[in-house]
Structure formats: structure tokens, C-alpha cells
Amino acid sequence: MRIPSEQSFVPVILGGDIGTYSLAREFHQEHGAISAVVPSVMTGIVDHSRILDARPFADQGNEAAFLDFVISLGREFSAGASGPRPLLLLGGADQHIRFIARNAERLRVWFTVPYVGESQLDRATEKDAFYELCRSLDIPFPGTVVHDCADAAADIEALPARLAEATVPLPAIVKPSDGVAWGQLEFAGKKKVHTVATEAELKDLVSKATAAGYAGTLVIQDLIPGGDSGMHIATFFSDQSGKVRFASCGRVIVEEHAPGALGNSAAIVAQPNDVAIEAGTKMLNELGWTGFSMFDMKLDPRDGSYKFFELNPRLGRNHFYISAAGANVSRFYVQEFLQDGLPEDPEFTQFQDEHLYTILPLRLLRRYVPEDMKQKVEKLISSKSYSHPLFYRKETDPRRWYYILVSTLNHYRKFKRHYPAP
Questions:
Q1: Are residues 329 and 252 in the same domain?
Q2: Number of structural domains, the chain?
Q3: How far apart, in whole angstroms, are the C-alpha atoms of residue 92 and residue 90?
């Protein structure tokens, strides 16, 4: 699908995952806009689509070449039928947001950039810096120890004593502070997030990561009890003055457990959460944030508090739960960054409507719904208040629907192999 020359603006979205497609769908649903999408490889998620123009670029790790390619898209798409038209540059993953922030000066010649600068990005997304910010704002977070893999003086043998001092028991969670660098790493047994049960496992993991060339920090954290359904998310939009204008929260029902997707939500119920809103707003105000952000947190059954894990400097991979519930996220980008700004009244909206977002077949989903959510989930299903981001009626290519069918059914195999028995 080529972008019509008469289209008034063009979203250019870096990425090719389900969050990228969701964003293209949202622009199409709300504005009738065809988006330019830049995946590293073509996948069934974006292939054969009627609502986007896929422009794959394989070598996205080569920043200079990638920058030249993105700027070339700026030159191409900025010329509309009636003259120059605005281009909105968006990122589907953390590495894209980092790329945009580093090259913002050159990119702004061609694009509107709805993201914060590098200094705010560092303060919000480097996990050790994020937890320092939580501490200063009195926002709960899991007990944490940070190990610097680049520091030759950081003794792996001393980690157990440091964990004891910080009251982080084993088993514990281990995750990278620099998710982009971690994604480029290769070593046996690597996962997105690790759970280590013993001191020996912890030392082995840190040694392997360091030997593989990881030079960032590793965050070792208290493993909060409870399953997937203890996880919650909160998505915010802040205007260009740094004022929080919108929030939407959700409770995770089921997560994926395949190694490469561990921790990704597979089903979410959109629902209000005043505690998350208060804490997230406090942090975003401190940061002077602009645009979308998303927090991950878990309800700790030991003390009833929400423990904050991280701030994502963008819409989450599964952000479609917001638009499916009725608040199409593309409106915020267009009104705030391409038009006259969001209306002043109301100044802040917490979206209240409940809705079920799922990428799983309903039969499979029902196996994993926690007991305290079964009645609500069944009510949402019976009232047709549920959505899958790839199920879009404007898509008419049968090859695409074949892919969606196969990939949806493939969840049965993945859950049987990787998911703990319900």
C-alpha cells in the first residue's frame, strides 16, 4: 500500500512488532491515514497489510546508515499533493526511542518528534537511575542490587553478601539495565529476564553476560510472589509543557513465557487504578515528561503495595488495550503535536471503561484466567467487550488472515511448552 499524496500527514513508525502494527491501525481507524512502517525484517504482522506502507531496513544497528535511510523517508514523504506536509516520527521499541533522541537535531528537519531528550531518557529508563528516582519520590519498588559488569572492581563473589544486606532473597529476578545492549548479546541460555534460584546460578549468569561483552549494569531484584495476574500497567500522556493529561491502566491476566517474549502481556483487562495514577503522575511531573510513557508494576501480596519496575519511554507493545477501550491513542499525537494542542478542558482524564485485550484464542485464555477475574472476563466476553489488535476488518488480503489464524493457534503450542501448568 502506497501513501496517497493527498494524505494530510504521515506517521512514520520504526519497528515491525504487534505494537507497531497497532499504532498503524489506530492512525487508520481514527484518521484514515496510511502509515510508513520500518521493520528490520518483513514478518506476517506487517506483511500484506492494506493500512501501511512497509519499508524494511535490515541494518538498524548501523546508526549512520539507519539515520540516512530514515531521513530519505522524510524527503520522500514530506512532499504532499498540496505542498509540504507534516511527518510524525514514532518508535516501536526502546532502541528506536534512543535512536531518535540521539539524532533528534537532524531528524527534526523532516519530522515532528514527540519524545523527550537524552538526559530525561537516561534518568527515566536506566533501571538503576529509575530506582534512585523511585527512592527520592517515595514510590515503592522491589528490593534491588545493581551490579556493574563494566567495573573490574565489582566482585561477583561479593554478590550474595550484597543481596543479604539489601534483603533480596533467592530466588531473585535478574534483568539488564540496558535492554538494547542486552538484545544484541548472544550466550547460552540468555533470556529477556532471568530467575536465579541459587548463588551459583547468579554467579554463572553474571559471568556469562560479562564474558559475552555486556558492559551495562544488571539489576538483581526481590522476586515478588504471585503469578502473572499480579502485574499491572499504567499508560500516560503528557503534553508539550510537561503536564499529565491522560492515563489508562490495566491489569495483566496472562503473560507470555517463551524465552524471547518472557514478560510480554498476552491478555489485559483495562480498568482504573488510582494508586498507579498518583505515583506515575508524581514521577512524570518530576521528569518534565513529554508524550506517552508506560509503567510496569506488580501488586505485592505481602504488604498490599504496588512495586514499580520500570518506565517505558513510549507506548507499550500491547498498548492497544487503551484504544480498544475507546481512547484511540493517535488522537493525542495528532491534537498535541500536529494541531493546536489538546483542549484545556478536561485537564486530566483517567479512562474508566473496562475492556479485555487479548492475543490468545478465547478457549486458551480461559484456562489461565485467575479465579478472582473469571467472572469479570466472562462478562466482558459475553458483552463483546474484547479485542485482538490484528483482527481489523479493513484488512482484506487472505494471505494476511491466514497468517493471523496460524499465529493465533500457535499460542497453544507455545503455552504447552513454556507456560507453567495452570
A1: yes
A2: 3
A3: 7
